[in-house]
């Protein structure tokens, strides 16, 4: 092999470089071909989960792109929390918090918590978690109905002191063999409701430019 | 020549030299994603696609590649294909992609792929390398799928749950359930269940393999007893 070229190292390096260029080209072309579709998939997935909590017919804004970032680590979990805003004809309908549960059984749990303007819950969904399969993972919608139990609840229904799992004297079910997971989620949802009670009005203003101009049109 | 025929290649890939059950390669994805049959099938097919593409390419360039840099080049080829397959899955099977997530890029680290590139494709003609890639990939898929089905059935009492993610809405009806009374064996879903399941599958395969020579020996002995065989 070495006899074929006087400088095998350079030949080898050139060959390697050639393949690096070919490989990169392949990846770049694929990326270019799929970019639009992937972005669209991600948007559809986001819209799908938002619309499950805030039905599409109850809002008329582009909720996926109408959001604010707030910061309240004690009540919303993360250092920064993205809040999607649902509006109809410019009026607030619901806010969807990407709350984080800091004290799950094994690591943080990410939630979507939809709070309607009257302070009731439009629903809660678990976005990601690392809870024990078969025990704590009944919080997933596809593995149990538990998460649907939040629909329509508010700080007055049940009363704020009833926002606990039954074992702690509250209104919410725990799971056999897994109390910590439901307990931490109930607490996080309650904290999100408390945040909304105190700061909810501030979320919807200022409205994003697009919505604002729409509202000032004569027909609005 | 019978030993190197296409039939032998296919049999090796699917059974005799099954990458997961005999060579024990690619254990990381094998153990991590086989919690349901559909996940196993999804990752298996993605791996098969990469294996076919990489075997084909490596075979095509086998006379061009210099000895000193062959491994980096194989790695480059494999990594490029995996990235392309990952992007394509994200675009066309987005829901399945969300579940398999991190394990698709990890196909790069599946030793079975570079193993076939180095041990087979770099020394064989295009059609043979292609056949080998397909057979090895399907063998791997078969192991992943079986282990996934076994764990799903024992652990959750379902089979083919979320089949709709892969085959579209029409496949929703494929899902089988063992009924409300079955609460699942947690161990099967947890990581140790993957090791135990794989151990069981290997034992089962060895058991099946062990029978064949015994039968053959029995047949030979009978042949000798009745008269000279054909040899």
UniProtKB/TrEMBL annotation, chain B:
<dbReference type="GO" id="GO:0012505">
    <property type="term" value="C:endomembrane system"/>
</dbReference>
<dbReference type="InterPro" id="IPR010968">
    <property type="entry name" value="RnfE"/>
</dbReference>
<keyword id="KW-1278">Translocase</keyword>
<keyword id="KW-0249">Electron transport</keyword>
<keyword id="KW-1133">Transmembrane helix</keyword>
<dbReference type="InterPro" id="IPR003667">
    <property type="entry name" value="NqrDE/RnfAE"/>
</dbReference>
<keyword id="KW-0472">Membrane</keyword>
<keyword id="KW-0812">Transmembrane</keyword>
<keyword id="KW-0997">Cell inner membrane</keyword>
<feature type="transmembrane region" description="Helical">
    <location>
        <begin position="181"/>
        <end position="204"/>
    </location>
</feature>
<dbReference type="GO" id="GO:0005886">
    <property type="term" value="C:plasma membrane"/>
</dbReference>
<keyword id="KW-1003">Cell membrane</keyword>
<feature type="transmembrane region" description="Helical">
    <location>
        <begin position="43"/>
        <end position="61"/>
    </location>
</feature>
<dbReference type="GO" id="GO:0022900">
    <property type="term" value="P:electron transport chain"/>
</dbReference>
<keyword id="KW-0813">Transport</keyword>
<comment type="similarity">
    <text>Belongs to the NqrDE/RnfAE family.</text>
</comment>
<comment type="function">
    <text>Part of a membrane-bound complex that couples electron transfer with translocation of ions across the membrane.</text>
</comment>
<comment type="subunit">
    <text>The complex is composed of six subunits: RnfA, RnfB, RnfC, RnfD, RnfE and RnfG.</text>
</comment>
<feature type="transmembrane region" description="Helical">
    <location>
        <begin position="99"/>
        <end position="117"/>
    </location>
</feature>
<feature type="transmembrane region" description="Helical">
    <location>
        <begin position="73"/>
        <end position="93"/>
    </location>
</feature>
<protein>
    <recommendedName>
        <fullName>Ion-translocating oxidoreductase complex subunit E</fullName>
        <ecNumber>7.-.-.-</ecNumber>
    </recommendedName>
</protein>
<feature type="transmembrane region" description="Helical">
    <location>
        <begin position="20"/>
        <end position="37"/>
    </location>
</feature>
<dbReference type="Pfam" id="PF02508">
    <property type="entry name" value="Rnf-Nqr"/>
</dbReference>
<feature type="transmembrane region" description="Helical">
    <location>
        <begin position="129"/>
        <end position="150"/>
    </location>
</feature>
